[in-house]
Amino acid sequence: MKVHLSRRYWFAASHRLHSDALSDEANRETYGKCNNPYGHGHNYFLEVTLSGPVDSATGMVCNLADLDGFVHSHILERFDHDHLNLRPEFAGIVPTTENLCVVIDGIVRRGFTQAHLHSVRIEETMMNSFEYAGGAELHP
């Protein structure tokens, strides 16, 4: 028996969408207002979905307190109220929300071992959400 467990978190961060591989004009055309040199911020809604068997002794897929502690110390403390372009995780990588999903997936996949990471989903705005369930790492 496999059960999926999703847990929601919130954090605020800023970013500038800009690729060194593109000219300034191409960056403006590609990213529009999101290419603002000063960046812009979002209140991100993060959903982490784990899957696994229900433990017969605890009745749980994993201990939510352990998951919350991991996400707080490895994700929220790292990214909350920070400028993503300045984070080493985004050196050479455009800090789109798509790439943020992949980065967070890698952090959880490497560090949280109580259950299988099924996916990471991030809502950037009411109109934009992104989900990653791949497990591949980003390489600039």
How would you explain this protein's 3D organization?
With 140 residues, the chain is α+β, with helices and mostly antiparallel strands. The protein has a single domain (3-132), classed as Tetrahydropterin Synthase, Chain A (2-Layer Sandwich). The chain has helices at residues 24-31, 64-79, 97-111, and strands spanning 3-15, 40-52, 82-83, 116-123, 129-132. The chain has a 5-stranded mixed beta sheet with strand order 3-1-2-4-5. Strand 4 and strand 5 (129-132) form a beta hairpin. The protein is elongated, with a radius of gyration of 16 Å. The protein starts with a strand and ends in an 8-residue tail after the last strand.
Quick recap of the structure?
The chain has 140 residues and is α+β, with helices and mostly antiparallel strands. The protein has one domain: 2-Layer Sandwich (Tetrahydropterin Synthase, Chain A). The chain has 3 helices and 5 strands.
Question: What is the strand and helix layout of this fold?
Answer:
Elements: E1 3-15, H1 24-31, E2 40-52, H2 64-79, E3 82-83, H3 97-111, E4 116-123, E5 129-132
Parallel strand pairs: 1-3
Antiparallel strand pairs: 1-2, 2-4, 4-5
Number of domains: 1
Give the strand content.
25-35%
Q: Helix share of residues? A: 25-40%
Q: Please provide the ordered H/E string of secondary-structure elements.
A: EHEHEHEE
Secondary-structure content class:
alpha+beta
Going by CATH, the architecture would be 2-Layer Sandwich
Number of strands: 5
Specify the number of helices. 3
